[in-house]
Amino acid sequence: MRPVLPEPLRPLNRLARNLRWSWHPETRELFESVDPEGWRESGGDPVRLLGAVPLSRLADLAEDRSFLRRLTAAADDLHDYLTGPRWYQGRAAAEDRAGPIPVESVPTASSGAPVPSDASVPTVSPGAPVPSVPPAPSGLPTAIAYFSPEFGITAALPQYSGGLGILAGDHLKAASDLGVPLMGVGLLYRHGYFRQSLSRDGWQQEHYPVLDPDELPLTQLCEADGRPVRIPLTLPGGRPLHARVWQAQVGRVPLLLLDSDVEENGHGEREVTDRLYGGGSEHRLLQEMLLGIGGVRALRAYCRLTGHPEPEVFHTNEGHAGFQGLERIRELIADGADFDTAHEAVRAGTVFTTHTPVPAGIDRFDRELVARHFGDDAELPGIEVERILALGMETYPGGEPNLFNMAVMGLRLAQRANGVSTLHGRVSREMFAGLWPGFDPEEVPITSVTNGVHAPTWTAPEVTRLGARQFGHLPDAELWELRRTLRKRLVAEVRQRLYASWRQRGAGTAELGWIDGVLDPDVLTIGFARRVPSYKRLTLMLRDQDRLMELLLHPERPVQIVVAGKAHPADDGGKRLVQELVRFADDPRVRHRLVFLPDYGMGMAQNLYPGCDVWLNNPLRPLEACGTSGMKAALNGCLNLSVLDGWWDEWYEPDFGWAIPTADGDAIDETRRDDLEAAALYDLLEQRVAPRFYDRGLDGHPGRWIAMVRRTLTTLGPKVLAGRMVREYVERLYAPAARSHRALNLDAAAELATWKSRIRAAWPDVAVDHVEAHLTPPAPGGAAELGSTLSLRVRVRLGALDPADVEVQAVAGRVDDTDHITDATHVPLKPTAGPDLEGSRLYEAPLALNRTGPFGYTIRILPTHPLLSHPAEPGLIAMPSETASEAAGVLMR
């Protein structure tokens, strides 16, 4: 039963159904004023609140002029937010006037260019025409579909497990703030992710509460006649799988969530969307088929029913949603295209983001399992199963040839791909280099866009009200008092949550009096909260428990630590780590200084980040792809203490916190590495972190600490914003993908597919036969002088190919200790003769020697075509044999 609001209060329904309230303080304050006690009992969920407010209270509010004025203002503000021009519309209008802005001119996360904050959204010049949807002539896409297996928008819609979902939620929110025409696609899990509690002995226990979609901020997508939309899939043997579509409105962004719990399905099919990351391999495969294939079909239905522009760009957030590319291929084949043509057309408009730096973090399925779910009596009939399998099989050196890899399929179906930090991009290029044999990892076509976090969601209201510009001028005393206020609030919440946890563990009221003394608002507070896979090393702090105890109980410079985190339900190793930490935290000697809070989620995090002085992160480097929790803490003036991994490797400065030294190297075993890095952590806390926090000046304030807080807020804060991240996606990935999508219509895609087929067939006959190099002027003593020229003459065989099909390149640069060319430049050679009777062609070019030290070069042949997005895209390269080259390097002086 849904409440029927009095007419004057009807705008409350729209405010409650648009999840912008989750990051808009004024709207939340309005709902809280409806019924303060009900607001607390509902967990800050407007939909639940309105369903529980007494009718007498609603009648009173309908006559309350002051409340109605606030309601009108909030409704008008939402209307303006949803309809007014924002950054994207201004960017589209600017492109229409001046043409596409070169990617090189766009500030990126790692560049020195200033990056605007989320709050400073550029608007269009007065009088400039701004369409609500970018026109086709603009280089920007008219719509972008963003697929993710989880979305962390708000605790009121618990469809997330950790960083991947929170990142997806922040991506949607920032896109909404910027006016980017994004459309989210995911699944609605009837149980969401599990709720965590602890047994008396500290063992993690899982609970799966049933979620009723009618009690969530969702509406069902219906046909024009009111019938709910049904999305069909076909299972092996022709069995049907149906899903309905729920819509959440995330500001300006629609989020479509597919739900298989419908009457038309059998019991097994209804359970496909039962829980997030649950079940065995087949269950996960069905979820990912529904997400990808069903997600595209849901998008088509939504656009048909609402008139929303069809997506030009499809963004796959991790490999779970990779099957969306197959469904789009099927659509084009149904329109008359062949598989290769459809593949090229689909790739052009697809962006793939990988979030894992380890193969174990990728979904991989047995070949036979995947094969059984496709074909004439299953899904995607009309497409050869072998063509589908070929997209995901690990058919490269080091791969498992019988495994279907979802990330590999994501890469093969996307023309553009990225990691989520600069370091993670480098790790990803090395991890997936086998897909581009012959190319150095630096040339693997995977870039990086460093993650960001949505400031309005994660910043404490007190910090938001001050704004980044004011922190540079705020007196030390006021900034220090702000930090103490946030710490004091955290202490109060920790005590409340800890009491509830102990009651769940079976403790009686009489034995919990000690909780009133847990934590101290004037003690250095460290936070550590994350999922609990082994590489994040939850228990590294326990490596030397005596030393940790000394830090916690130091008579002059004590520290206190708040820890939270969930282990995957099937990960007994992770559960043992949780139990080990909980047992230490239960020790009466330290339980007032170190606490573990169960059931980590968005609601807890939004107070945890602001209230901590230091955010701890100690993963095994380089296994943290990004690690955005430290970003959220930084937005609130919390300093980071972290291994140089993920985003911290990119932006660490001594002004922002501390870097935990790492014991890298293959020679060291894991136990020894943990011992060394734990000792380094203790040293930092003991010798640098705690002394700086407690080093008080004559005014009683820690001046040097406050200076670090100020620098974190004013300098680091603007870098970590999701608005910066989404702008980078637009400029560097979405806009180029839209241009490729438009360029690769079916005719162009057919031409490119035919060309690639011809190139692959002829490539075995392509070779570098001979390389000659002459130095001008000659090098006395074997060492050339700076400014000399190396004249290259290269004989190549192209077989059935023409010179227009290839580029012959010299790759030159400084040579390192491993005889590897670094900081390479690529110089094209020009054909000057041929072919001769033996089919050999001559290519020549001068190579300027413009750097000192050991200098090397090599020759290679690459396919080239104007519609290629990257020289490595075809995965073909020809290099000289050892006998083909007379010289491989020059010593410069």
TrEMBL record:
InterPro entries: Agluc_phsphrylas, Glyco_trans_35, Glycogen/Maltodextrin_Phosph, Glycogen_phosphorylase_DUF3417, Pyridoxal_P_attach_site. Keywords: Allosteric enzyme, Carbohydrate metabolism, Glycosyltransferase, Pyridoxal phosphate, Transferase. It holds the Pfam family Phosphorylase. Its EC number is 2.4.1.1. Signal peptide: none annotated. Residues 98-128 are annotated as: Disordered. Its cofactor is pyridoxal 5'-phosphate. Residues 5-94 form the DUF3417 domain. It catalyses: [(1->4)-alpha-D-glucosyl](n) + phosphate = [(1->4)-alpha-D-glucosyl](n-1) + alpha-D-glucose 1-phosphate. It is an enzyme of class 2 (transferase). NCBIfam families: more_P_ylases. Phosphorylase is an important allosteric enzyme in carbohydrate metabolism. Enzymes from different sources differ in their regulatory mechanisms and in their natural substrates. However, all known phosphorylases share catalytic and structural properties. Belongs to the glycogen phosphorylase family. This is glycogen phosphorylase.
